[in-house]
Amino acid sequence: MIKALKALALLGALILGAPLSAQDTATGSPADTVTPGPIQSLLQEHAADIAKPSRRTIQPVIDALSGSGLPGMQQVLQTWEAREMYQRESDGWFFAGEKGPDRTIILTDFDSGEELEPVPSDAVDILRPNSGVRGLIASALVRFQLQDENPTLRQDALTAISRNPDPSHIAPLRESIEGEPDPAMKAQKERLLTLLTISFGEDEAARIAAIESVAGDLNVDTRGTLNPLVATTRRLAEGEVPEGANVARTLRPGTEELPREEAYDLVAAEADLPARIDPADRRNVLQANIEGGAVGGVPLAELNTIEARERAYAALVEAGAVPPAPTEAEIDAALARFTFYEEYSEPSPAVTEAANKALRAIDTKVGLNTTLDLGLDALSLASIYFLAAIGLAITFGVMGVINMAHGEFIMMGAYTGYVVQQMIPNHTVSIIVAIPLAFAVTFAAGVAMERLVIRWLYNRPLETLLATFGISIALQQLAKNIFGTQARPLTAPGWLDGQWQINEIVGISMIRVAIFVLAIVFLLFFLFLMKKTRLGLETRAVTQNPRMAASMGINPGRVNMLTFGLGSGIAGIAGVAIGLYAKVTSELGTDYIVQSFMTVVVGGVGNIWGTLLGAGMIGSLQKGIEWLNPSNTLAAQTYMIIFIIIFIQFRPRGIIALKGRAAGD
Amino acid sequence: MKNRSFIARNPSILVFLACLGIFTLAVTIASEGFGLGLISTSFVKTLGKTLCLCLVAVAMDLIWGYCGILSLGHFAFFGLGGYMIGMWLMYERTRLIVTESMAAQEIPPTPQEVVDAIGTQIFGVVGSSEFPLIWSFAHSLTVQLILVVAVPGLLALVFGWLAFRSRVAGVYLSILTQAMTLALALYLFQNDSGLRGNNGLSGLQNLPGVTASQDVVSIWFLWASALALALGYLLSAWVVSGKFGSVIRGIRDNEARVRFLGYSVETYKLAMFTLTACIAGIAGALYYPQAGIINPAEIAPIASIYLAVWVAIGGRGRLYGAVIGAALVSLVSTYFTGGQAPDIPLGFYTISWVDWWTVLLGLTFVLVTLFAPKGIGGLFDLVAQRAAPDRHGADYGPDKGAKREEEGQ
Fold first, then answer.
1. Is B106 within 8 Å of chain A by CB?
2. Cα-flanking dihedrals φ and ψ of residue B216, to 5°?
3. Angle B243-253/B214-241 helices, nearest 10 degrees?
């Protein structure tokens, strides 16, 4: 970048210098004999300072150079900063130079941009400004960069300023705003100027105005600018708080913000009191001073109370054996003498108040956005629960069969996805293949289970529960035997990676969006199936009254088999979706089974809308509790389950309870 | 009929007690601590633990087989009992160790220092040294022994009251109890639950202040477990034998009818639920000192389902069935999963029992549910030649938990 900058500047110098050099050529005289150009003249005016610059005295010179308005001046400053400027010993002129062959230096004139004949290196002196001086030159260069024609360079300059803000940037930044052609960058410059004004502005009213203008701004750097204004230091004063201090708040010792020990340590440092001694340290000191079965005249056997130990220690202090330490009572007395308070490092109360107000406004906005983000999280968790529970809504909700192996069907779906991915390396294709295949596998498993086990146990839900549990542990162990205990990856296709970022705070990963979409598709599919198809009609008929349905010519066995297979198949597809989002293990199903049953029970058995509401409630509840106690997701689940247990007290039949004959009893 | 004593009406109790007595005596004689040394101490402990599992299975049978409530939460009560006794064992033993090490110092410790040192010892693993509130009584054996019964009992009382009051029944109740177990397990998994989170309580096999070797202690525990099982069995048999028992069975088979007869069904159910929870707590309090460690994984929902598996395989609705089921399945499981069982080479594949036992157990379970609802206990009917009532294929009652005709006795 610097190279580009130099090249550009050089080009500028060449173009501008062209008439001059033409003139030179015309007269046929060498460059060193002509009268100095405007840049050289200006440099010569300050020749002594430039040749031997010091950080303290050079600023006016730099200001003079950068403020001169001469077009080649940026190049001069860059050369100087890069330690590539040379002074010719013969006449004291300054040139840009680079090393040529045979210990020679090739000099370039600043005004004309012309390369001179190489001179021996002992005929010139290189200028080596120290780092302090170079820093000053660099900030003078900012002015040029901010007004550069190349937008990339201007952007770089802005980035550099925002990373390393300094009061000296305010003036060049303000000057550059006027002529800024790019509206986006102009806004950026204005924003940066506002932030700089907040941090370093001289005029209090201007600062407050700037602070007020950023209230509600969600950007991290806004908060980063405002926070130092309200930073506090802890201080203490004897008696009252001193006049004129910009006090944030007063503290009481012994509270959480200011523990008693810490407060006394402050006091001890301030008022030159003896340092506090820990109970453990005191014990060690006493231990070191045992004499003839006693310490300081107190027998060892009595030293099992704090009070006796303090007495013994006091006796040792009296004897001059140990440094004095305050007793608890003395600590209290010392603390009572002092007032503790936190003082803003910013002296102006108006500014700190405005900053606090702005921060509060930002906090409110952040809070709103966090709530929105939390809502999205809850929605995606709800769709996962809904996906896991929708198969159960068919087998349990509609048919009334407790299938404890439902979780294992989810697991089978996920493993199907994994196996397909092993065979088809393209992730997109493999997912497209895996979804129908997972459905097929779990549909078959469901049908087999219904034919072999469940149909003998209709109307015996407790026995069904236990028998399907037997199948569940067998399937789980089988999966462990086949795939091992370690987690298997089911990788999402590339277009599902990444995040959909709405603003600084609100964002949601694409995979969760996909799961949400899948959940909606399933919901619609379920509704269509149950309300619009022959199978749905027959299913509803069989579950409401199997005998009547049978006498209408419906084969209840076949309908039950298909319905159960369907519920299981949907669990398989849900397994693929969940596998994309979580690791595939043999215990995948166990993690979801209780929540799935909860979802169906809370929502109301036999009603898909109830399942939807149940999933929504459980999802948002869990996210809500997690938000209240973010470090602890286990506790969130605990409280959620307790809440559900209590909820069922009030709505034993779930959110949407079936009424009349459909209720089944 | 009426004047005959409770034992005389139930001769199976005597048979059971006699078997239990002979078993205990035989183990004692064969043990390393008191006799011939034929049985290793670790196996004595396994047998002692099995007796405790039998006791909790009896409680499960009482609530499921007799009252028709398939509770999937009784292992939570079992675990809570274990935690309660474990707190005392751990506190007292740590206190003894800490006091001993502090006695070596010349300056006697203050009481606060002792408590802090114990706290650091116990809670160091979870990055804390403060005693949580629930450890307030850990120093007192008496209180903790009361809590062994009181905590599971109270939890069952509150939970049962809430559940029965709102007429949650059948599978809904099962799922709810399972949720309760899951909630409890998840809660205990946290480090700040106050019970050392994932680490659980350990070192419980060392009784504080007892210098006898584990060989002897294991026999003491075997006796205690056998005694508890005997008493629990007697109590359960007595509870289900009288009028109370008839009402309970009535609730199982036809709850609505019992309610219409004027009985307060909820009270009966609640009493049974709480009683069985207390029995489970006692069983747990005897189990975990023999196991030596308790952690939240023990009360995961699956443990409670296994409990139902034992009772179903043994034969529900008969107390000896529960004992047989629990003893047989848990011992056989220990045998197969312990890696002692020889692998079966099939040429193309070697069946390792560690891997395949659970599959076999699961399938057995399905088969028992389908084809042998009486369970193993049903075999005794062949000896006793009791005729099952003929109900023409119908269940005993319309309720979900009602007995099937095939299960009748």
1. yes
2. -80, -45
3. 80
What is the CATH code for A368-663?
1.10.3470
- Residues 316-345 on B with a CB inside 8 Å of A are none
Q: Are B245 and B66 in contact (CB under 8 A)?
A: yes
Angle of helix A170-178 versus helix A183-200 axis, rounded to 10: 150
Q: Closest CB to B182: pick one of A467, A478, A641.
A: A641
Two tokens at B152? 């599971």
Residue A599 one-letter amino acid: T
The mean per-residue pLDDT over the stretch A65-77 comes to 77
Does residue B104 fall inside a structural domain?
yes
Count of structural domains within chain B: 1
**Cβ neighbour number for residue A306 with a 10 Å cutoff:** 15
CA distance to A539, A542, A566, A662, B140, per residue, from A562 (Å):
9, 12, 6, 21, 61
Residue B105 distance to chain A (closest CA, Å): 9
Three-state DSSP class for residue B203: coil
**If contacts are CB pairs under 8 Å, which of residues 358-377 in chain B contact chain A?**
358-366, 369-370, 373
CA dist., res. B21 & res. B270, Å (int)? 33
pTM: 0.76
Q: Is A247 on the interface with B (CB under 8 A)?
A: no
Q: For B291-299, what is the mean pLDDT?
A: 91
- R_g (Cα) of chain B, nearest Å: 23
For B183-209, the pLDDT digits (tens) are 899 889 888 788 888 888 988 888 888
DSSP state of B391: -
pLDDT at residue B57 greater than cutoff 90: yes
Asked if residue B269 is part of any domain, the answer here is yes
Q: Which is nearest to B217 in space by CA: B200, B233, B227, B204?
A: B204
Domain boundaries, chain A: 2-138, 147-229, 232-344, 368-663
Give the highest mean pLDDT range of A73-77, B32-36, B227-231. B227-231
Q: Is residue B369 part of a domain?
A: no
CA A313 from chain centre, in angstroms, equals 52
Q: Is residue B311 part of a domain?
A: no
Q: Which domain holds residue B149?
A: 6-303
Sequence-distant (≥ 6) Cβ neighbours of residue A501 within 8 angstroms: A507
Burial of A55 (C-beta count, 10 Å sphere; 0-12/13-18/19+): middle
- Note the pLDDT tens digit of each residue in B314-331: 888 888 999 999 999 989
Which pLDDT does position A489 carry in this prediction? 84
CB A409 within 8 A of CB A542: no
The mean pLDDT value for B8-37 works out to 87
Distance CA A430, CA A422 (A): 9
* Identity at A355, one-letter amino acid code: A
C-beta of residue B190 within 8 angstroms of C-beta of residue A605: no
